């Protein structure tokens, strides 16, 4: 704790600080709760995406051996861009998945086998889910970082700033009270001396 001046000005300053900390602390608690709820929501979304991805993977297992044929599916399907927007949650700008722009090249239906249509459809869905999962992971990273900072601030106010300020107010109040009592005592002694002289 830094050295404090034992004056009325410092007492007012410390009381103002305490009032400000107590006003700001509930806001930090609300922000922390909002961030925790959003993190829970993102975790649920990630589980949904993982489930959907695994379901699609199971769907292609019966004909996965066909993917070994020289069809060059990777040339037919390409992720062009992941479109995102920004959402403000508890004062933090967080990315939001909008859509995945997947480029599917035209191919000759007479040259490619029949299963390629279904493979292109399923792989496109899988790429889209992976893109959404990527954005959600980025979202989660931002939220967790902000939650960590907010939690540190809450702890700073609750465990350091508010107790330090209360101690400072108490010390200054005791000192000023002692000064006032001493001044009253000195005034009485001076008054008695003046009355004794006259």
UniProtKB/TrEMBL annotation:
Gene Ontology molecular function: any one: proton-transporting ATPase activity, rotational mechanism
**What InterPro entries does its record include?**
V_ATPase_D
> Which terms are listed as keywords in the entry?
Ion transport, Transport
Membrane-spanning intervals of the chain: none
NCBIfam families, per database record: PRK02195.1 (NF002565), V_ATPase_subD (TIGR00309)
Q: Which family does the record assign?
A: Belongs to the V-ATPase D subunit family.
**What name does the UniProt record give this protein?**
V-type ATP synthase subunit D
């Amino acid at each position: 704790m830094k050295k404090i001046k034992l004056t009325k000005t410092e007492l007012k300053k410390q009381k103002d600080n305490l009032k400000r900390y107590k006003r700001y602390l509930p806001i930090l608690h609300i922000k922390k709760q909002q961030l925790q709820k959003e993190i829970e929501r993102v975790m649920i979304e990630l589980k949904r995406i993982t489930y959907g991805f695994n379901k699609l993977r199971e769907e292609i297992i019966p004909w996965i051996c066909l993917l070994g044929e020289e069809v060059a599916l990777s040339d037919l399907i390409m992720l062009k861009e992941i479109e995102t927007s920004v959402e403000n949650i508890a004062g933090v700008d967080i990315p939001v998945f909008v859509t995945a722009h997947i480029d599917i090249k035209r191919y000759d239906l007479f040259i490619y086998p029949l299963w390629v249509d279904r493979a292109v459809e399923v792989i496109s869905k899988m790429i889209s889910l992976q893109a959404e999962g990527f954005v959600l992971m980025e979202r989660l990273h931002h939220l967790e970082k902000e939650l960590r900072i907010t939690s540190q601030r809450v702890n700073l106010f609750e465990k350091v700033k508010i107790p330090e300020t209360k101690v400072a107010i108490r010390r200054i109040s005791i000192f000023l009270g002692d000064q006032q009592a001493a001044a009253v005592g000195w005034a009485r002694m001076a008054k008695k001396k003046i009355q004794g002289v006259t």
